[in-house]
Amino acid sequence: DGGITQSPKYLFRKEGQNVTLSCEQNLNHDAMYWYRQDPGQGLRLIYYSQIVNDFQKGDIAEGYSVSREKKESFPLTVTSAQKNPTAFYLCASNPWGQGNQPQHFGDGTRLSIL
Amino acid sequence: AQKITQTQPGMFVQEKEAVTLDCTYDTSDQSYGLFWYKQPSSGEMIFLIYQGSYDEQNATEGRYSLNFQKARKSANLVISASQLGDSAMYFCAMRGLQSGGSYIPTFGRGTSLIVHP
Fold first, then answer.
1. pLDDT above 90 covers what percent of chain B?
2. Which residues touch A11 (CB under 8 Å, ≥6 apart)?
């Protein structure tokens, strides 16, 4: 079955450490997204990418970085500059240019500070 | 800029009854889409229903229907015959056409629904 795979499910970060969250999709979708979810808040957009080797900042990109070297993969790095990284991170994808298509989501990664 | 407002942080409903979850939106886009997603405690986001801004009729998907009132900019989700498995967070989202042909989504803060037996 096609879908989005996020790993790991749980991740712990030490102070001053960069960590990378994996997101892989086999849906042949062009557009991919990273969201951050905090308790009591909705999903906030961190970065998105419409095509390989191109990505744009979302609303809360500071302290995060991404790459899009392959269509299937859109990893997110939480850098040490992100001072409050504890949150639930969701990766999503959808066909590009089709606004009536829902986003497909992975199962999420829960990041905590040690 | 797009904005989604969900004014009900939490809702309670008796099993087998209907419940309405409110969603209002603000956008200057002429073409946009409205989505509802369900998020159980396990965390995955499940797509429920879609309404396009040019759709004349309200969308329905099984027990889910969307009460779309364009002039009032509201897109309320109606769940009929609630089941215990409907207990979850529900998010309203909107995607409007941006420059370059991309659709950037905006999510509301969500409504927590608890279904009582």
1. 79
2. A19, A21, A109, A110, A111, A112
Helix, strand and coil content of chain A, in percent to the nearest 5, comes to: 0, 50, 50
For A41-63, give the DSSP string.
--EEEEEEEEETTEEEE-TT-TT
Helix, strand, coil tally for chain B in percent (to 5): 5, 55, 45
Q: Please tell me the distance from the alpha carbon of residue A62 to that of residue A58, in angstroms, as a whole number.
A: 9
Residues of A in contact with B6 (CB under 8 A): 42
State whether B103 and A102 contact (CB < 8 Å): no
Radius of gyration of chain A (CA): 13
Residue with tokens 């989501």: A105
Spatial distance between the Cα atoms of A46 and A60, rounded to a whole number of angstroms: 5
B95 pLDDT higher than 70: yes
Q: Which two tokens stand for residue A31?
A: 């557009």
What backbone torsions phi and psi does residue B86 show, to the nearest 5 degrees?
Answer: -80, -10
